[in-house]
Structure formats: structure tokens, C-alpha cells
Amino acid sequence: MAAKKFRVPVVVYVAGPSGFTLIESLAQASDFLFDHWPGNDSLAWTDAMKRCAVDGAPDDASAAFLTALEGAGISYDRTVEIY
Fold first, then answer.
1. 70, 77, 60, 58: which is closest to 6 by C-alpha?
2. How many CB atoms neighbour CB 15 within 10 A?
3. How many angstroms separate the first and last alpha carbons of the chain?
4. Cα 39 from Cα 25, distance rounded (Å)
5. Left, alpha or beta for 79 (phi > 0: left; psi -120 to 50: alpha)?
6. What is the 3-state secondary structure (H, E, C) of 40-78?
7. What is the pLDDT of residue 16?
8. Does the pLDDT value for residue 22 go beyond 90?
9. 9 and which of 24, 32, 44, 56 could share a cystine (Cβ 3.0–4.6 Å)?
10. Contact at 8 Å (CB) between 23 and 34?
11. Buried b (16+ CB within 10 A) or exposed e, 33-57
12. Which residues pair with 77 in a beta bridge?
């Protein structure tokens, strides 16, 4: 799972000193869903968790992750270039 990377990284805006976290892989998305999610009980969260936790297709997991973020009202950006 750790080797599976998203085609485009996702910058997720979170509370805390840094103000954001960079999600680049299925493993990071799964960890974010498990550790930083309000409620862990929506259908979108469940779908994203299944797609990210299972060694699946990165594009499907990324789409499910973004849908879950939107549903929870969590801000993100896919246009930030990080070097």
C-alpha cells in the first residue's frame, strides 16, 4: 500500500501549527481518514477508507478521498505545487 501514490498530491487544510498536511499516497490518506476524521461514520468516509486501506487503484482511492473531504467540509487543494 505504501508504494501506491496519488497521481496528484492533495494538500488538506487542518487545524494546528502547520495548518496543512500533504497527502501523497493511499497509506497517508488511510491514516488521515483514521486519525483526523470527525465522526468516522459517513458513507463517503467508509467508501474512502475501503478504497485507501485496500491495495486498490490510486485514482479510485483519490476520488473517494476527495469526495469524503468535500462531504465533511474539509478544505483541500490539488493545485499547489510542492517541490
1. 58
2. 7
3. 23
4. 22
5. alpha
6. CCCHHHHHHHHHHHCCCCHHHHHHHHHHHHHHHCCCEEC
7. 77
8. yes
9. 24
10. no
11. beeebeeeeeebbebbbebbbeeee
12. 11
Distances (CA, A) of 25 to 13, 14, 38, 39, 67: 17, 18, 21, 22, 16
Contacts of 38 (CB under 8 A, 6+ apart): 72
Scan for cell 499547489, then name that residue.
80
Read off the C-alpha cell for 21: 498536511
- Residue 83 cell numbers, joined: 517541490
- Residue count (the chain): 83
| Backbone dihedral angles phi then psi of residue 66, each to the nearest 5 degrees | -65, -40
pLDDT band at 83 (very low <50, low <70, confident <90, very high): low
